[in-house]
Amino acid sequence: MKSKLILLSSLLFLSINTCASSTYKDIKYGSYVSIAHLKYIYNKVKRTSSVSEKALAKTFHYYEKNRYAKYLSPNYLAIADYTKFASQKRLFIINLHTGEVNKHLVAHGLNSGARGDRVWSAGNQAGSYKTPTGFFKVGYKEGITFRKKYDYLGLDGLEWKNRNAKQREIILHTASYVGSLGRSHGCFAIEPKDKREVFSRMKSALLFSYVGA
What we know:
Elements: H1 2-24, H2 35-48, H3 53-66, E1 76-81, E2 91-95, E3 101-104, E4 134-144, E5 151-157, E6 171-174, E7 188-190, H4 195-202, E8 206-210
Parallel strand pairs: 1-8, 6-7
Antiparallel strand pairs: 1-2, 2-3, 4-5, 4-8, 5-6
Helix pairs in contact: 2-3
């Protein structure tokens, strides 16, 4: 009787661990989640976050269609929701495995909106000092800007409307003025204190700059 109980317990333990293992295949870090899990995360974030639903839907759709071809991060994606005021934490970094959302301040371009305001005018032209819109892929290699010594990650524009991102030197960088609602020359600027948290999550990630259009 005792041996039967031990055998039954062993089989139950094996069954539980097999189920856990097969479930974990869809959510472990470093692996792309399934379409079903991606939809689950989308619905969870839509219910629990203040990010624009339109921006969220566009971002998840683009990610689902392009994650393999563009070699996008399997772990995170991000939305800079510029329909919100600069005083709000409007950079949303979404964990694609758990649905956790981290929020941070992010500045907009000098000619895209007033200090502390929303983005009212996006732009792609060199010298415009405007925030570009659309989808970007965040770079993996960290650097320091030559003049102002900002820590940064590069950005690649993934659409025709932000094709000039590299030419304009549009990057994701730290800047002390972000906390006092200062504006950038078009770059995505974050507070220096957020560097470790933001950079560690956003390397190779999809970033959507959303201005409401």
